[in-house]
Amino acid sequence: MHIIDSGNVAAATGVKLSRAQVIAAYPITPQTPLTEKLSEFVESEELDAQYIPVESEHSAMGVCIAASTAGTRAFTATSANGLLYMNEQLHWAVGARLPIVMCVANRGIGAPWTVWNDQQDSIAQRDVGWIQIYANDHQQIIDSVIKAFRLAQAVSIPVMVCYDGYLLSHTYMPFEPPEQEKVDNFLPPFATKHFLDPENPGNFNPVTLPDIRPGVDGKIMPGYIEIRHNLQMDLLAALDVYEEIDTDYKKEFGRGGHPFVEEYKCDDADFVAVCIGSLSYHLRDVIDSMREKNVKIGVMGVQIYRPFPNEAITRALSGRKHVIVFEKALSYGNQGALYADIKSALYSCEKRPTIQNFILGLGGREIKTGQLLEVLTEACNSPGTAEDTPRWIGLKL
Amino acid sequence: MEKKTTTVNLTEEEFVHPGNRACSGCGLSIVYRMGLKALGKNTILVVPPSCLTVLQGLYPVASSKLPVVNVTFASTGAAATGVRGAMKALKKTDVNVVAWAGDGGTSDIGIQALSGACERGEDIIYICYDNEAYMNTGVQRSGTTPQGVLTTTTPIKGKLQKKKDVPSIIAAHGIGYVATASAAFPLDFYDKVKKATTLPGPKYIHVHTPCPPGWSFESRYTIKIGKLAVQTGLFDLYEIENGQFRLTGASEKLIGQKRKPVTDYFATQGRFKSLDKELVAGVQEQIDAKWANY
Ligand SMILES: Cc1ncc(C[n+]2csc(CCOP(=O)(O)OP(=O)(O)O)c2C)c(N)n1
Ligand code: SF4
Q: pLDDT (tens digit, 9 = 90+) per residue, A332-343?
């Protein structure tokens, strides 16, 4: 049965259905209603979890790290500066291989202060080793949260589920919460091989040497670099695991089937607009009106950004005439991060398309459909003239 | 706690393996061994970066027999909260959740998380071992370094500011149990830890641990110097239980007695080399005034 509510409530409902056991949270706009909703679920005993209202985001992740190490399903959520304040902890969580799930309601970063949406916060954390999934609407938020818990547990790597602040976090849309019983089938109870246990003591995250070293039993154990290498391999393998999880989800709930990229009118497209998050749905209108004028254009939303789905991206973009990447974030001092990643994915393609980068919407600057139509039309008319430096849409200098 | 523990009835069970990576004469080694005896098997430890991280050993070897989670410097109080949260979620009610951190990790970078845990009333024991500087990174000043002490970041004039009174700050949260202890009086420490395991809510124990290389003294003098800190009245042993303050052990016995002059203590360590007479006189006056109130 569909309900109509905000993206934050969709996320909270996903967390409830996933039976999170320890929830730590610190408020920051636009994530706040999510943590408020969770506190309500816990106090009303709809969700049997420990809700810990901590004194900072650093501590929120600290609680999740410890609770996960101790053998429980842990969840937190944040935005913008809250996410940045966690940075040290994000590295720690993944280095310790903890299956924590976190929602990020994407928001621009201070200074100067802004509460409105862009994606700089999570994009700035792309290299910490967390899996990053981006949802485009409320249904994807709730579905992604449930899938994220299963993925995190399967690969022992934490997962961020990101969605656009306000555009999704605060708007009301219909979505269908899956039935609890079915979710229980899909997502088994939390279990990890190693956890804090007085019956079976271990020292977690100790000082580790550069080189391999035997333990007291003579067994050779990895050095730091081996541990990091294993993380990288497991991250890359996580793509296949996620695909399986998504297939299972589709079987059970009928939704999904595009775990890496979600294409719209791309089949015969010469031109493909690429972006992350709700913008890819916004762009569908523009693509529709260009199609009416017989421009062969489609749009592709990147659903998982780390690990980067190189293969899926090359498959989707190889042989196209021109690719136009829209981004609500930058790798400052260079280009859009997504643009650079896509360029690098296409490097090995024989039929490499030309590619172009637009920056837009930073700090919530309104993204006007007319402007999108204008730049896309121009890009399709003269793809060969595109320069490598990103162009900014709607700047008023 | 009715009966005091003595060397005769102290449990023989050990939770620290013989041989670890602490310096010889380390005050922390003494209290760690004693503390784990008092905590017993059903305990989970939370440890931030510090000399204790090193003491624990290098992967894949560990020097203690209890489960330990190493966490980031600032997050000790939060991590202990997380372990307790997990224990509640798993309905494991009989586990001691113990944070064990240095003075820098407690008084400076970790105070926010510790304060949060105290305010929320988390059922944890927090033990701060106070070697009065950042020793793990090579003897830099911390919030609890006493005035006048030479460290590598206060190398000529010594630290200009006074020692931060962390137990009082924690006591101001109104938690049920705050105590101080010293590595020179390990059985007193043992009893305080033991008592902490029987009380609900947050418990805070601040234990003074002499450090031979950091304080610049020969490793055989650890106990002697620890005792002098107490006997001069510089470091007092006490308990604050439900708001009631009382001196304990060796400090209690000093009430109405003549204390040793603080110069006796200062003379034993290289770190006090640049104390001038005025500062020493000032410290003696402060100590006398404090004790006049006991
Ligand atoms: C965020 C962060 N900053 C700095 C450090 C470096 N660091 C590691 S241990 C330490 C000093 C610890 O001092 P203290 O807590 O007093 O314990 P001790 O080493 O004296 O036993 C510092 C500064 C760190 N690990 N993490
Ligand atoms: S430096 Fe001091 S506190 Fe650290 S291990 Fe050595 S003696 Fe102990």
A: 999 999 999 999
